[in-house]
Design a protein that fits this description.
Number of strands: 8
Largest sheet: 3 strands, antiparallel
Strand order of the largest sheet: 3-2-5
Shape: elongated
Number of helices: 9
Radius of gyration: 55 Å
Number of domains: 4
CATH superfamily of the largest domain: Band 7 domain
CATH class of the largest domain: Alpha Beta
CATH architecture of the largest domain: 2-Layer Sandwich
Length: about 290
């Protein structure tokens, strides 16, 4: 009985061994597949998009190498990649300042900037991703105040290109220290206090009225000169005519007048009687001739 049980046990063991031997080639495949799935789960690669840079962090420590655009491999668990945007970005800031003549000035300025791509790791390490709030906005405020104080309120308007360039150069120098480059800078607009704005409007109105009065005066002078010139010409004409009048010319004009009267006469004498003689223009003169 004991021998039968032993035999049955040995046979079962053999069957199990044979079964394991038959499944042997499948086990390594399953192990490899499990490793690959676990490896894929850890995501050992990272994709950096256009206009971006990847900051390599080894257990949170920023590394010197910066990943450019494309696909990159990382060490799972050990390395993490922080993505930063290095494309041109826009910032619009409202800054209040005072001019050199102590006028309140509010400026709206627009700034285009970008992070220096190769220095993205330093920006991430020293400033972080809130670099606009921490660096750019305070720098714009300070630069606008400093440059505005050099000019009068009127010069801020008349010399606007020079003011804008001074702000741009000053701001570019400040931000470059933090590895941020300025691409463009422009002053969107100035606004002044109500009293100063009214004073400017009054001055412009006065200048316009003065200019109109000046133009009217010049017009009057020109018209007066023309009148004087015309009067002088007429007087000169009359003088020349008077100088040319002679006795013969007078007689000629009389004859011409008589001939015109004869041409108009219909041959009928006037039906008027009286004590006086009947007038007959120029007949005597004609007979004398």
């Amino acid at each position: 009985m004991y021998d039968d049980d032993l035999t049955k046990g040995i046979n079962k063991a053999k069957e199990k061994m044979q079964s394991v031997m038959k499944k042997g080639p499948l086990i390594p495949v399953l192990i490899i597949a499990g490793i690959l799935i676990f490896f894929m789960y850890l995501a050992p690669w990272v994709q950096i998009g256009p206009g971006e840079r990847g900051i390599v962090l080894n257990f949170g420590a920023v590394q010197k190498n910066v990943f450019g655009e494309g696909l990159h491999f990382r060490i799972p668990v050990v390395q993490k990649i922080a993505v930063m945007d290095v494309k041109v970005q826009k910032s619009v800031t409202n800054a209040a300042a005072a001019s050199s003549d102590l006028q309140e000035v509010t400026s709206d300025v627009a700034l285009n900037y970008h992070i220096v791509p190769d220095k993205a790791n330093l920006v991430y390490q020293n400033i972080g991703v809130q670099f606009k709030e921490r660096i750019i906005d305070p720098a714009v405020q300070e630069v606008v105040k400093a440059v505005t104080a050099r000019y009068t309120a009127e010069e801020l308007i008349t010399k606007r290109p020079a003011v804008s360039e001074a702000m741009r150069a000053n701001l570019a120098e400040r931000l470059l220290k933090h590895n941020i480059e300025v691409d463009a800078f422009s002053i969107v607009g100035f606004s002044f206090s109500k009293a100063f704005t009214e004073a400017i409007e009054s001055k412009q109105t006065a200048e316009q009225l003065a200019l109109k009065a000046k133009r009217d005066l010049e017009r009057i002078k020109i018209e007066a000169t023309q009148t004087i010139t015309a009067a002088r010409a007429e007087a000169e004409s009359l003088r020349l005519q008077k100088a040319n009048i002679s006795t013969d010319l007078i007689e000629l004009r009389k004859i011409e007048a008589n001939l015109k009267a004869i041409d108009k006469w219909n041959g009928i004498l006037p039906q008027v009687t009286g004590s006086g003689a009947i007038p007959f223009i120029g007949v005597g003169d004609i007979q004398k001739k």
